Amino acid sequence: MTAAATTRPYRMLIVEDESTVLFALRKYFTAAGYRVDYARELEEAEALIATTQYHIVIADLRLSGSSAAEGLEVLRFVRQQSRGTKVVILTAYGSPEIQGSARMLGASAFLQKPAPLPEIGATVLRLLEEA
Amino acid sequence: MSSPQTLLQEILGKGGLSTLFQPIMEIGAGLHELFAVEALSRGQKGTNAERADVLFDYVRRKGKEIEVDRACTAAALSAAAANGIGCPLSINVHASTLERDEQWVEFLAGACARRGLPLSHVILEIVEQQKFWDERRFFQTLDQLRTAGVRIALADIGLGYSNYRMLIEIRPEFFEIDPYFVTGCGERAPARAAIESISLLAGRLGGRVIARGVESESDLRTLEALGIRLMQGYYLGSPDVEPPRAAELAQQEMS
Questions:
Q1: Does B6 contact chain A (CB < 8 Å)?
Q2: Residue B250 clears pLDDT 60, i.e. is over it
Q3: Does domain A2-130 have CATH number 3.30.429.10?
Q4: ipTM more than 0.85?
Q5: Where are the domains of chain A?
Q6: Quick check: A49 contacting B, CB < 8 Å?
Q7: What is the average per-residue pLDDT within B183-204?
């Protein structure tokens, strides 16, 4: 993964409201050569997506500790802005209904938390390489 | 689980906002002098708010224009006072703040008074003009500001809601032409036509044009030929934490 990301630095947005998970994801993907931005809430993610062209967005399904599936709102917003951006949804509450909604909205992948970082990394790289 | 600080908390927290100053120059007929400085707000380095486009897009999505406009204005006035800026100071404010903040005029007057800055030196630049939410209050606030000596600039003329109706109703003292029209205008006849049109209208309505986005000698000369005298852009001075000094700018021009 490192070699591919380094030769063509992909621009990535991580949307996650939990400090430790956000820290781990940022550290992992930055070390792998990605250019990483991050957002902790829906409006921050939307402001970044509206002003920046990302290759890939990784979004937690539930932000701000609420039961609302804000990750799907992030996905919806990405699809309004850019058809080519890949979106990976992470969640600890992956019901088939939510997964179905995510697929309908155009999610590129849906991963259960806690997913090991190498697994997330491999999924991200596969999506970017098939683009 | 621990939640990180939100971007809004970072923006409104201590040291969350800083101010850069960019000169607005008066040029032509032998003049090349500092007319005013524009205060440009930025978030803290290393945060998403460091980028002005992200900062203000986020603030509008959160519906926190009033709180952030107040914080940006206070930071700009403090920086202006600390640097002894003696020329007019242009400060940006959302149109929605003028409609919704019932205490805006009192806030601005108090903030200026505490820093020893006269209100007559303030140019309030209205940005992000939208469909009116409370038209009556908006114009009432403008009247109060003008009575207090504040001059009004309207940004983004020719784009969005900064249209002919707004120009007629707001009657700004300054008509700000967007860089979309200004940058490269020497090579773009349609852009020059738009600039001429805005300039003519400004003259008829008793206002002055400020051309933003002057990035080359060609832009400057073209604007001069069109009779535009107030100009702003990287070619004339980049935004900087240190405010431009009239004497230094004059020295640069002579060297």
A1: yes
A2: no
A3: no
A4: yes
A5: 2-130
A6: no
A7: 96
